[in-house]
User: Which sequence fits this backbone?
């Protein structure tokens, strides 16, 4: 829509030669004999027009066909035809949520059995529940190997093996350590299964008798 007291010099164009079934102040439907400056010639089918016309001709900028009043609202409005699309690529190393805090605790700094009874807790103002994976690794680096997983308990999904935490509720989870593991320490990790982000860590000394 444009509201102005007058058209500027050069903004009034002459209707080009051609066969026109419809003429408005800012667009034409039909077929032109040639292209002209200040106009945009488009195939009618390319702009979704179905009928006995070959071309859709629209003026560029604030131009019009002829001298008319300074108010008009017609023509090609690309901003009304384009649907913007935003694609977000999330890194697996980043958290995808905001205020979730997960803690893992054990009664000691060492374990003496292949079954380690851990306590896991979620604290969040906006997320009432969160599913995690609870795994044990033979080190703290990115190349550490998994040597233990969460055992059967009320919070564990038997199909996915994920632990469902409720915000503000302490959840007891048994961690089953590989009986053949002989390393000096393990690192327990609470992992977001959607992103792979590590939400919490706990390091424990291996005090089992071999």
Assistant:
């Amino acid at each position: 829509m444009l509201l102005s007291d007058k058209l500027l010099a050069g903004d009034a164009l002459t209707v080009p030669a051609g066969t026109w079934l419809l003429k408005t102040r800012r667009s034409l439907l039909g077929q032109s004999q040639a292209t002209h400056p200040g106009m945009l010639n488009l195939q009618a089918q390319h702009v979704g027009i179905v009928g006995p016309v070959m071309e859709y001709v629209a003026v560029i900028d604030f131009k019009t066909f002829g001298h008319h009043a300074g108010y008009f609202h017609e023509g090609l409005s690309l901003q009304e035809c384009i649907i913007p699309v935003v694609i977000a690529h999330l890194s697996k190393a980043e958290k995808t949520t905001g205020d979730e805090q997960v803690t893992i605790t054990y009664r000691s700094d060492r374990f003496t059995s292949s079954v380690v009874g851990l306590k896991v807790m979620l604290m969040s103002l906006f997320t009432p529940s969160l599913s995690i994976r609870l795994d044990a690794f033979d080190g703290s680096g990115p190349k550490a190997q998994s040597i233990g997983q969460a055992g059967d308990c009320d919070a564990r999904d038997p199909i996915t093996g994920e632990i469902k935490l409720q915000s503000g509720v302490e959840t007891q989870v048994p961690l089953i350590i590989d009986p053949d593991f002989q390393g000096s320490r393990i690192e327990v990790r609470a992992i977001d299964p959607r992103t792979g982000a590590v939400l919490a860590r706990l390091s424990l000394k291996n005090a089992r008798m071999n």
